[in-house]
Write a structure and sequence with these properties.
The structure is a homodimer. Chain A has 6 helices and 6 strands. By secondary structure, chain A is of the alpha+beta class. Chain A folds into 2 domains: 87 residues, Arc Repressor Mutant, subunit A (Orthogonal Bundle); 65 residues, 2-Layer Sandwich (Dna Ligase, domain 1), CATH 3.30.1490. In chain A, strand 2 and strand 3 form a beta hairpin. The longest helix of chain A is centred in the last third of the chain and has 15 residues. The structure holds a DNA duplex.
Chain lengths: 153, 153
DNA sequence: ACTGAGACTGAGACTGAGTCTCAGTCTGGC
DNA sequence: GCCAGACTGAGACTCAGTCTCAGTCTCAGT
């Protein structure tokens, strides 16, 4: 936090836009967490925090933050976008637990190198990689084993 | 085609469901193409072909086909689902051109092995892998180079 | 063939994430 | 202070996808 404000301000200035109070509120809320969040989460959080910002403004600000590469959008096929800080580990992948919805991350440079190589082999100019592994997290896998054992016994 | 009908019929029978005319119409349309398609594409196609099937039924049938693993759903962050045949190359990745929207595929067993290994290292039980590389296809990259050259010269 | 339980259908209402519009407000260079 | 143009919130709108419901069809049992 701090760097982000700077980057955002620079970006806004370059495009003749202003760092207004609602934008600052959103910026602080966004960079005050390290979780993946949705626009709706953020709107609810701001509401609860007593600093409500309208839906339209939240979406507009998230869009600006994505444009200046401070945020990255992710889609896990839920019909809504998840956001995360772009500054975290670069080009990491996601593990999405279909049972509890938990999202965790992993980073493996070999995976990135391999993807880059494959893309270029196909004449493709890669900009962003998105590796999503769907399945069950350790907790849910364990729960399922216990439940299945119970069902049998 | 043929195998798919068999698999679908077996699945339906096992669940006390019927292979009705609208379902058959959808099945034929779905397996009559090898492209990635959206529900909307399919509805429009059936309309044009003079064999319209209602939106609700199309969605219901696509959902059944996904359940019995004949189709796989994909999300490229467009706010709509793309479908493809599950029988095609297994666990392949997608190259999505952000300029023209074209979707192409690649298959690399090393990528799958690596993903499986990474997931299990994290205690995660993988069910499905989704590798999406966003960027520019060869055509669009070339177009862009020409356009940029033109802008400078 | 007839019957009844329950599966199926289409039309259209509904949902929910995200976008757009618009009137009123704010910002900052002059 | 003025003004162009950026910004805001409220709520209308869009659009993919889901749900509802009344009417229809299917098929096992007779």
């Amino acid at each position: 936090m701090g760097d982000e404000v700077q980057i955002f301000e620079d970006y806004l200035r370059k495009h003749s836009l202003h760092l207004t109070a609602p934008r600052e509120t959103v910026l602080h809320a966004v960079f005050g967490t390290h979780e993946h969040f949705t626009a709706d989460d953020l709107i609810a959080h701001l509401q609860r925090a007593g600093t409500p910002v309208s839906k339209a403004t939240v979406y507009r600000t998230l869009s600006l933050l994505s444009e200046c590469s401070l945020l990255i959008e992710h889609d896990f096929g839920q019909g809504k976008k998840y956001y995360e800080h772009a500054s975290e580990l670069q080009h990491h992948g996601h593990l999405y637990c279909s049972d509890c919805g938990r999202i965790s991350e992993f980073y493996d440079p070999r995976l990135n190198a391999l993807q880059d190589k494959i893309a270029r082999q196909e004449g493709f100019e890669p900009v962003q990689f998105a590796v999503k592994i769907y399945g069950r997290c350790a907790d849910c896998a364990a729960k399922r084993v216990r439940r299945d054992a119970g069902a049998i016994g």
